[in-house]
Automatic annotation (TrEMBL):
The gene is nadD. The keyword Methyltransferase does not apply. Keywords: ATP-binding, NAD, Nucleotide-binding, Nucleotidyltransferase, Pyridine nucleotide biosynthesis, Transferase. Belongs to the NadD family. It catalyses: nicotinate beta-D-ribonucleotide + ATP + H(+) = deamido-NAD(+) + diphosphate. Residues 12-189 form the Cytidyltransferase-like domain. Pathway: Cofactor biosynthesis; NAD(+) biosynthesis; deamido-NAD(+) from nicotinate D-ribonucleotide: step 1/1. SUPFAM superfamilies: Nucleotidylyl transferase (SSF52374). It is an enzyme of class 2 (transferase). GO terms for biological process: NAD+ biosynthetic process. This is Probable nicotinate-nucleotide adenylyltransferase. It comes from Stutzerimonas nitrititolerans.
Length: 219
């Protein structure tokens, strides 16, 4: 791996984090260690206001993500998408991040295989690689037939070894990761039926959920 001294390696993982759970956190930490990232930023997505109910507000989602990473030096929270008054396109987030980084800092956009396959529907998707590398998190059991629209880009930009991604942006690689069997949907369902979600979220997040009465059936 060639690294110019001083260049930082920064990962980005977007999500609704409603709520953040151990699947997000373990996945983020494993990628951080595997790629020797200097930091990985969890970026909570804004949602249209009418979709905030019955789930938690942007403010609560952000507070929970902050609590989840408070003792983990490599994991950070980037609230820029919540600070805008409308949902952000990923290209906007990348442009805004890039404006704050040194030109040779390496940016790694993490996304699951399903999200990657949907890339051709994203706003200005062909410009994403001008700002970042894309790191596709592949489940060992996932199908791997990419949509036609992505074949040329994959042929031109794929690098087999994610640790060999070079430069500040422009390449795609794959990380094989067995996700933990946990989802925010399942956590919300458990809480709504009065079941415990202990050990599925960090204790500090659980305390916040309880203190604020989040995800209860009556909310
Ligand atoms: P929901 O159940 O509400 O759809 P979720 O648990 O899938 O939510 P998101 O906030 O949508 O969580 O997740 C953001 C990203 O985190 C996803 O795109 C995915 O890459 C990753 N992720 C989600 N769940 C897991 C998991 N169990 N293990 C590893 N990564 C995960």
């Amino acid at each position: 791996m060639t690294r110019r001294s001083g260049a930082r390696r920064i990962g980005i993982l977007g999500g609704t984090f409603d709520p953040v759970h151990i699947g997000h956190l373990r996945g983020a930490l494993e990628v951080t260690e595997m790629l020797a990232l200097d930091e990985l930023r969890l970026v909570p997505n804004a949602r249209p206001p009418h979709r905030d109910t019955p789930h938690s507000s942007s403010q609560d989602r952000l507070a929970m993500v902050r609590l989840a990473v408070q003792d983990v030096p490599q994991l950070k929270v980037d609230a820029r998408e919540l600070e805008r008054d409308r949902p952000s396109y990923t290209i906007d987030t990348l442009e805004s991040l890039r404006a704050e980084l040194a030109a040779d800092d390496q940016l790694f956009l993490l996304m699951g295989w399903d999200a990657f396959c949907g890339l051709p529907g994203w706003h200005r998707w062909e410009e994403l690689l001008e700002h970042c590398h894309i790191l596709v998190l592949q489940r060992p059991d996932a199908g791997s037939e990419a949509p036609e629209a992505l074949r040329d880009m994959l042929a031109a930009r794929s690098v087999a070894d994610p640790q060999a991604l070079e430069g500040s942006c422009g390449q795609i690689s794959f990380v094989w990761q067995a996700p933990l069997g946990v989802s925010a949907t399942r956590i919300r369902q458990s809480l709504a039926s009065g079941r415990s979600v202990r050990f599925l979220v960090p204790d500090a997040v659980l305390a916040y959920i309880n203190a604020h009465g989040l995800y209860r059936a009556s909310n």
